[in-house]
Design goal:
Order of helices and strands: EHEHHHEHEEEEHHEHE
CATH architecture: 3-Layer(aba) Sandwich
Strand order of the largest sheet: 3-2-1-4-8-9-7
Number of strands: 9
Number of domains: 1
Strand content: 15-25%
Structural class: alpha/beta
Length: 218
């Protein structure tokens, strides 16, 4: 598959959502190739919380988060029968993709979310799309917990950046992307599709280029 890079949100690794992770693994197994960047999820948040409580610096909290993403990536890789090491850099991931036609990785360095890593990998592999598989079904114009929140099906890079930086919204609040990811996408014109992992058929519609329910950032 020379399709999109998949950014698999760490929230899918929660105990309550385990069945969706298993569904994803079974479905992606059917594909001829894949490029997946895996998030840290509950294990990252738990360990970071403990380190923050004892006064660890943000740099080391990031390092802890990266280790958690790589642990999750290893789990997915082994579940799919892959015996390759999880790449620690974009360059390693590109080499692995050339050799095996598939790659599963986590974070790379402090300051980069796995969403940003997925966009960098898409750049390096000349992929036109990143599918962000997360715990929300769309972007919303405000906190989706509010009754009058409206779904956004299509949005530009610049408008998405404005939403993140808006004082009314609050930086990053209920937003599945970060500014670095959007800037990388914008400079290379990489389309971002945002879908909820709680609908496996819809996720793979987005991955395979079919009509899907979610948000497109372009």
């Amino acid at each position: 598959m020379s399709g999109p890079v998949i950014s698999l949100g760490g929230s899918i690794f929660s105990k309550t959502d385990e069945k969706y992770l298993l569904e994803f693994i079974e479905r992606i197994r059917e594909e001829e190739g894949y490029a997946i960047v895996v998030g840290g999820g509950p294990i990252a948040r738990d360990q970071i919380s403990k380190l923050r409580a004892i006064g660890a610096k943000e740099y080391y909290l990031d390092m802890m988060g990266i280790q958690a993403t790589r642990l999750n990536a290893t789990m997915v890789s082994l579940a799919l029968g892959n015996l390759m090491d999880v790449p620690k850099s974009i360059d390693e991931a590109v080499r692995q993709m050339k050799l095996y036609k598939r790659v599963i990785m986590g974070g790379t360095e402090p300051g980069h979310t796995t969403d940003a890593v997925s966009l960098l990998l898409a750049e390096a592999l000349s992929r036109e799309t990143v599918v962000n598989v997360t715990n929300v079904d769309y972007l919303y114009d405000k906190d989706p917990k509010l009754k009058d929140a409206k779904k956004i099906e299509k949005i530009s890079y610049s408008s998405a950046v404005e939403m993140i930086t808006s004082e009314k919204r609050g930086a990053g609040q209920n937003f599945p992307l970060d500014i670095l990811s959007l800037n990388i996408a914008r400079r290379s014109n990489i389309k971002i599709k945002i879908v909820s992992f709680r609908d496996s058929l819809n996720v793979f519609n987005a991955i395979t280029g079919k009509k899907f329910r979610g948000t497109t950032v372009s």
